[in-house]
Design brief:
10 helices, binds 2-oxoadipic acid, binds nickel (II) ion
């Protein structure tokens, strides 16, 4: 396995262990006869969240995937949530493998209140040089280990709750760090009836999966080409400094339909590849999908 494949499979393994909905959805897809093996699922993209402070944030995180041949694409700004994001296209020479795109975001910590900034810096300031620079990126197992190791000490529950009141994203990252935030099931290549987001959402709801309703369950880009939905984040029992336990939001699962671009509408279905479909992301959709881990959706 290449280092990139080792890293991607490590991320998926730990994420599947932590988020029961992943296996439950795969099992439901098999029971429904949509797929015969989990390998048939195309992963549209994976997502990460980062803390925008010196030595961390996107500038540090992205080095890993840029080194593996991912290409940085469009920026997105979320003014109210104080977030910046980019998406990254998988290595061109691996086009045949349909590797996941990456959506990575960063909290603009300097825009938060002094109190929130102090809590964040109390922990992140212990990272006094960029930890990715010390990594051997050719060693996939070491990178997998890095992505799942605590980069800073665990805060107290009170600090977590102070952050939560001001920025749910800040609270999520201070505890969950680089854990995979979600993977995304591509629906457009599934059998008829399930190959639109509407059909797939109907199936999920009939099977009792709880979906993010912020801005409506189905988020549609203005051009109509990118249609997304997501589950509500599953809860994890988090242990805070001093041993205090509390249930907090962990990760979730997303679903995406990318429609064929108008200029390729004449192509027969079997000829369609990624390059014929709507690419990239959509800020207005993403703004609502972020809320899959927010209290208003999880009900915590
Ligand atoms: C990412 C939310 C945005 C998308 O596909 O637009 C997103 C997050 O929750 O960190 O996943
Ligand atoms: Ni997403």
């Amino acid at each position: 396995m290449s280092p990139l494949d080792t890293v991607l499979s490590g991320l998926m393994r730990r994420y599947t262990e932590r988020v029961p909905d992943v296996q439950n959805i795969i099992d439901a897809m098999m029971a429904e006869g949509m797929i015969h093996s989990p390998n048939q699922i195309e992963n549209d993209h994976i997502a990460f969240r980062t803390m925008g402070v010196p030595n961390l944030g996107l500038a540090s995180f992205e080095k890993i995937f840029l080194a593996y041949g991912y290409e940085k694409r469009d920026p997105y700004n979320f003014a109210e949530k104080k977030l910046s994001a980019y998406w990254y296209a998988p290595p061109a020479h691996r086009a045949a493998d349909n590797l996941p795109r990456i959506f990575a975001s960063e909290l603009r910590v300097h825009e938060l209140s002094t109190m929130a900034q102090e809590i964040i810096h109390k922990y992140t300031d212990t990272v006094d040089k960029d930890p990715v620079d010390a990594l051997d990126l050719a060693d996939g197992a070491a990178v997998d280990q890095f992505l799942h190791q605590p980069l800073w000490a665990t805060p107290t529950l009170a600090e977590y709750q102070t952050l939560l009141a001001e920025s749910e994203y800040a609270a999520w990252v201070i505890y969950n760090r680089y854990y995979l935030n979600h993977f995304t099931i591509s629906v457009h290549n599934l059998p008829d009836g399930y190959n639109t987001i509407d059909g797939f959402v109907q199936f999920l709801q009939a099977r009792g999966f709880k979906l993010n309703s912020s801005g409506g369950v189905i988020k549609v880009s203005p051009d109509g080409g990118l249609r997304q939905a997501s589950t509500v984040a599953q809860l994890v029992d988090a242990q805070f400094a001093g041993g205090e336990m509390h249930r907090i939001a962990g990760s979730y699962v997303e679903f995406a339909e990318r429609r064929v671009l108008p200029q390729f509408a004449h192509l027969p279905t079997r000829q369609l590849t990624r390059e014929h479909r709507r690419e990239g992301f959509e800020a207005a959709n993403a703004d609502k999908i972020f809320e899959s881990t927010f209290v208003a959706q999880t009900g915590l």
